[in-house]
Amino acid sequence: MLNSLSGRFLILTTIFVMLAEVLIFVPSIARFREDYLLSHLERAQIASLALLADDMLNPDLEKELLENAGVFNVVLRRNEARQLMLSSPMPQPIAATFDLRDASAMTLIKDALTRLVDTDQEVIRVIGAPVREAGLLIEVTMDAAPLRAAMVEYGIRILILSAVISIITALMLFLAVRAFLVKPIKRVVGHMQNYAAAPEDSRRIITPGAGIRELREAETALQSLETELTQALRQKERLAQLGGAVSKISHDLRNILTSAQLFVDRIEGSDDPLVRRMAPKLVGSITRAVHLCESTLAFGKAEEPGPTLARVQLAETVAEVIEAERLAVDGYDLSFAEDVPAMLTLRADVEQLFRVLSNLVRNARQAIVASGKPGEIAVSAREDAEAWWIEVADTGPGLPPKAREHLFTAFQGGIRKGGSGLGLAISQELVRGHGGTLTLLHSGPDGTTFSICLPKNDGTL
């Protein structure tokens, strides 16, 4: 109970209301003391009127008047003359004098608090202005003990009333908080627990329904989070299923390609010059496909194997990629350009670098062919003291907005209609394996340019 939000709110509300009542109590007790003293001055003035009506009062009547007024002596100043109207023996000398005529609020509060804590039996003098302007001033002497007793009794009543008000107020606020805050929060917590039990079930995603704006904003944010998480889990499940399917396909495809490799070995013995020229390239392509299938079977997961770094003549790899793509153009008005220094040698995994460049050039070729317009694909390279730089540029129509938004995300960053987006995702992962970066430099109606940066250092300091 005390550890709950509503329980703590109940305690804090009670404390704050009591604190407010204490702040009200201080001026209230000061006002009570002032009214108490003024009432005694008024009663003393009324008692003195009897003496004005009859100059001679018997001692018993005078004593009764003073007792009714609750004072020992009454002094009245009229016409600049100070006159002792009523008097009786005082038990002790006057300890303090209080003038109520021009007393400030702070003075009244200070005197009231002093009287509350002072338990001594004292006689005090009180000066005030007569009611109905019946003189210049009236002065009485009185016992301070009854005053303190009355103040204590009044204070106890105020504190009891404050406690009752605090409890009632806190209880009402407790019920209000429980109805308007705690229950909606528990509802959100219940939705979260229900969703956590089966996050793949979209029916468990929370539907915002809180009437409080802040809670509704929290529910809306939670709904968005749960929706994205559910989609991610479904995507992960699909990827896992796809991985299993790819492993099975790769197993059978490896066997088929191994058989094809045996046939190509025989083709190499042909006397046809064209066959003899194309056979090594066919062997190289089949060998790469076999290696890829073997890698898929060996790892059986979404991660690529680490690169086997060696010195690579970049011009030879680029020429091989472009020659393979030229065969795929089949007479289309598409030209290729190479600007790679013949002696440029970099450190990379030749098979993985071939796959990266092949993916980029193939994407460019497919984009230009899909546009139905002539175009050009250019591969250039350079190096500096820190890294090797390779750029693949085309004059195609540019990437669509969705492709730019999810450029390197598998199954979301497809460049062409029907594409899976795996090419760029795989290429980025392979480049990262080399410690480098694959970035989109430019994409617009005038074409697209990708840049590959491969650092020259080995990652050590």
From TrEMBL:
Keywords annotated in UniProt: Coiled coil, Kinase, Membrane, Phosphoprotein, Transferase, Transmembrane, Transmembrane helix
Gene3D superfamilies linked: 1.10.287.130, Histidine kinase-like ATPase, C-terminal domain
Residues forming coiled coils: 215-242
Catalytic EC class: transferase
GO MF assignments: phosphorelay sensor kinase activity
Record-annotated membrane-spanning stretches: 6-26, 158-181
Catalytic activity: ATP + protein L-histidine = ADP + protein N-phospho-L-histidine
InterPro entries recorded: HATPase_C_sf, HATPase_dom, His_kinase_dom, HisK_dim/P_dom, HisK_dim/P_sf, Sig_transdc_His_kin-like_C, TCS_sensor_his_kinase
Localization per record: Membrane
Entry EC number(s): 2.7.13.3
One Pfam entry name: HisKA
Entry GO terms, CC: membrane
Membrane keyword on record: yes
Domain Histidine kinase: 248-458
Top-level taxon: Bacteria
Protein name per its UniProtKB record: histidine kinase
Taxonomic source organism: Pseudosulfitobacter pseudonitzschiae
Higher taxonomy: Bacteria, Pseudomonadati, Pseudomonadota, Alphaproteobacteria, Rhodobacterales
Encoding gene (name): dctB
